[in-house]
């Protein structure tokens, strides 16, 4: 697939690494063009592109910015009508130990409302950057799970195909409003991993009986 990664931080860089490794055609863009170029230079096959028009021709855009920057970053790309947007953000407090919104809405729903022509899917928000970088295999047949939630069947299928190409298990988490559950799950994950010191291997994996 042709995939644009929007953001050049830890998660954006990890996505570029794994997407190029999986054979996808990857473009990366960010508010800091030099940072995007540095990320692209690390992974053969990736290409840094200007923000304006970065989504043109892309099968999906991975939104790898902080939640507070998400809407501005997306709108800077230009027309997103019909585009699949994979929202990996979490609305975290400054200390990363809480959420700024929830219960009756979610980051994903707020982003979808701000870019109404796009097809937004929540996904990868429960996966640590380290797990994405090192791969989803936890040994003994256990793999980290990616939960996908969207009101668009196409967006959900696209996100699931990308996750599977990276080796993750995929769990269909229903409609976009279920991001209200996935974002607190990510918050719990972050607390366990960092607040409680259990490490990034605590990333949730839902086990299925054979």
From TrEMBL:
Q: Which residues form a coiled coil?
A: none
Q: Does the keyword Oxidoreductase apply?
A: yes
Describe the location of the Pyrroline-5-carboxylate reductase catalytic N-terminal domain by residue ranges: 2-91
InterPro entries the UniProt entry points to: NAD(P)-bd_dom_sf, P5C_Rdtase_cat_N, STEAP_metalloreductase
Q: Which UniProt keywords apply?
A: Oxidoreductase
**GO terms for molecular function, please?**
oxidoreductase activity
| The name this protein goes by in its record | NADP oxidoreductase coenzyme F420-dependent
Tell me the organism.
Leptothrix cholodnii (strain ATCC 51168 / LMG 8142 / SP-6)
């Amino acid at each position: 697939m042709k995939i644009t990664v929007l953001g050049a931080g830890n998660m954006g860089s990890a996505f570029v690494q794994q997407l190029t490794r999986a054979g996808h055609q990857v473009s990366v863009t960010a508010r800091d063009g030099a940072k995007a170029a540095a990320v692209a230079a690390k992974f053969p096959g990736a290409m840094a592109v200007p923000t304006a028009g970065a989504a043109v021709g892309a099968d999906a855009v991975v939104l790898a910015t902080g939640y507070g920057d998400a809407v501005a970053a997306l709108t800077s790309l230009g027309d997103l009508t019909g585009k699949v947007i994979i929202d990996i953000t979490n609305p975290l407090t400054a200390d990363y130990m809480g959420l700024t919104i929830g219960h009756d809405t979610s980051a994903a729903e707020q982003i979808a409302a701000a870019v109404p022509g796009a097809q937004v899917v929540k996904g990868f928000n429960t996966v640590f950057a380290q797990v994405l970088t090192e791969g989803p295999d936890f040994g003994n047949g256990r793999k980290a799970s990616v939960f996908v939630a969207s009101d668009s069947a196409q967006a959900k299928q696209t996100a699931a195909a990308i996750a599977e190409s990276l080796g993750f298990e995929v769990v269909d988490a229903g409609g976009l409003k279920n991001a209200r559950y996935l974002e607190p799950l990510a918050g719990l994950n972050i607390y366990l991993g960092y607040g409680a010191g259990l490490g990034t291997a605590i990333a949730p994996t839902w086990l299925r009986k054979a």
